[in-house]
Write a structure and sequence with these properties.
single chain, Rossmann fold, eight-stranded mixed β-sheet, 21% strand
Length: 241
Amino acid sequence: MTRIPYGTAPEQFGELHLPPAPGPFAVAMNIHGGFWRSSFGLAQANPLCDALGAKGIAVWNLEYRRLGDPGGGWPGTFQDIRSGYRFLSQLAARYKLNLGKVLVLGHSAGGQLALCLAGHEPAITRAMSLAGVVDLQQAWELHLGNNAVAEFLGGSPKEVTEHYREADPMQLSVKATQWLIHGASDDVVPSSLSRNYTEQKKGRGENAHYLEIASASHLDLIDPHSSAWPKIESTILHLLA
């Protein structure tokens, strides 16, 4: 694993996990969750990075400014995600990354950021949300994460309408192939968010797919030792085949 800055702020860095085999490598850019708050960091995704590396996939595990960091919240958090994604082009030659096979994925709040990125970056062709907060209006209504959405965006949908329009994957047009995976036993982010998102996006003609895993909890989806992981891993390998 190599830590590489993509900006000047302390939080603007990624950790590049490379498989032991020679490249070129397909790439998964991972965006960790934690309701956009600085109390959660990218280390929670290390087991996921190791598991994908064992399958020959390079992982660009991104850190970014969050609530509690100077410049964190909207739009600074998303600006970091966008900068981190664009920085892949600077890493490709040195680390033998195949930029024709890039998957952007995120867990929980990272799922929102991954699909939001795909909505703003038309070059992205593959996006995955794991237990994602993919409907910010609904998440605000449910007060998820102790009102984390209002904290992240700076107010209610009526107060900062434009922020919701720019940030909410439900309100964006996403051209990428999208996979949303959620555990039926998730008590942090209800699976209904991902299910309803997929149904609405399919109705708009988007290439969205939903997989619900019975008995899986919120954190099971990023735990390679969970019973849910084989389905997640196989979906990622399929997308990057």
